[in-house]
């Protein structure tokens, strides 16, 4: 039998401000070399479970634990703060939350310093992990200048440089373009075969992992373990079909727009227009300039050249907490004051925020934070909505509801520009696609002309959406 290295026995966990437990009576063990995934609805406690395995909780949140946690055969409470973290390394859902230093090399060196690795050994280990993760060319790059997906790869490199026995991954594919995500899974498969590294991951989009995992732990909305079973490959989510209704008026006109920051050109001059009610997906490789584009369209980044004419924009950022201004989810969604109470209530219900209406926006899960930001912008009723990775961290029910809300609003005349790596969502929702690569706009295409163009998709690190054939008639 394989050796059990992590074990939970009748575990329950409650945050100090909550009346009910986030996790309830959970028991399972993880064996050395196992590849296990934790699944379940958004907000059910999946990330909390990871943080109990790496000892981040309960010490850093004053939560209460009932039951037993054994790490490598010892009670978790026997480990001093930080003692376990070189053996159990973590890649967090939001990579920004774990960076302390300015450059990639500095961050890797800082990790080794915390492990008291001799200076003379650092160069070899840094070079090796950069080669392993394909990040050698970014060694001296400022981390905050990187895209969300590239930051995720840097965070993974920082975890691996510790040479851990267990790697905890919190939705590691959520910010990766489809091609890079496929490469990541292939690379992780090869790495695990070579090292017998134990991998425990939290994931919603299981179809992207193929046969990587051996076992699945499934939680329900109450934080209870409902399934512990062999993993079987998953099919992608099939969204409803939609018919677009574009209005002839122009909602957004961009002419000769470019962005240069600190002498680095992030976007070369580009031009395009968008009709009222049009849903445009912005797609391309990690670091290609997609987020830079939407930030410039809402004036977060000042254009270096060009003009932007729009009916008025709202923005849902990749890190939704940047928007939050109030003390409860309810107040956050209603903050704009431009919608009546009935509409606020409807948005809260449809996006499953009513159950957390009195929670602080910073105290909820990543997926829930994103839905709060989306609800707030929909409540604000801006004519043009810019959304950066709105599907990240969402379960199937939330994705389908998001699809229906966007579809409904577009028919009412709201225009959407959506940055996403979720090809199935993109194929179901998009009227047109803006393709960007290396800071240059390849072009704006009708959606139907993109999904079967393998050369175009491959050159932009995209994969053909699964099930796209069923949209053929609606595209025709």
From TrEMBL:
It is found in: Cell membrane. One of its GO terms (cellular component) is ATP-binding cassette (ABC) transporter complex. Pfam families: ABC_tran. The keyword tRNA-binding does not apply. It comes from the Bacteria. Keywords: ATP-binding, Cell membrane, Membrane, Nucleotide-binding, Translocase, Transport. Gene3D superfamilies: P-loop containing nucleotide triphosphate hydrolases. Residues 6-246, 252-463 form the ABC transporter domain. It is a peripheral membrane protein. GO terms for molecular function: ATP binding; ATP hydrolysis activity; ATPase-coupled transmembrane transporter activity. Belongs to the ABC transporter superfamily. This is ABC transporter. It comes from Planococcus donghaensis.
